[in-house]
Amino acid sequence: MRNVIHNLIEESQKFLFKRAKIDDKIGLEAAKFAVHDIPKLTGKFEKSNSPLIRWIKEAVKHGSPETKDLLNALEPALPYLPWKYNYEPRADIPDLGNQMGWGEILGPEAPYHDEQICFGFTLLGKNTFYPSHLHPATELYVVLSGHAIWTLDGHTQIRGPGEFILHPSEHVHSMQTEHEPMLALYTWSGKDIKTLSKYV
After folding, report:
1. DSSP of 81-135, one letter per residue?
2. What is the pLDDT of residues 120-132, one digit of tens each?
3. Which residues contact 21 (CB under 8 A, 6 or more apart)?
4. Please, what are the domains in the chain?
5. Three-state secondary-structure class, residue 8
6. Is pTM beyond 0.85 here?
């Protein structure tokens, strides 16, 4: 599994490095992980019992030629990522933790301990609403498979495979899937990558 994860990190950095060649805000953010030195592995990647595992086979089907190589590297790793959902429970969406979550590979609490940047993958099941939330970290998403209705600061767009979305620090955003699960790569950077997201 260690080789699988190492290959996934390399493919992710290669993918982001291509986007980093464009000199704009997204390119600058992509470069932060694309050229980041990967620390030594201090944790473990074990078979997950997360309910999100049931979405994996379908979640990797809705990619694009642009995201195919990265999805191929990601698919064998998905059952072993440390999937979590750590928001406070919501009475209006009591089963949300069974429908969405993220598996972090690098970060302050990830198997690759890193205090400067977070890197991982987010998975949303079909017909799932990820409610409006914000966080201090600057967040970069790349949709790898599936589509979602993405809202940032009140502006809504449908986003699909190969698209990059930048969430500046403390900006409110949300996602809604419909017929397909959505799988996306994410990074967090900035002065505070430890404070968790909160719903608004």
Report:
1. S-EE--SPP-SSSTTGGGTEEEEEEEETTSSEE-SS-EEEEEEE-TT-EEEEEE-
2. 999 999 999 999 9
3. 27
4. 2-199 (2.60.120.10)
5. helix
6. yes
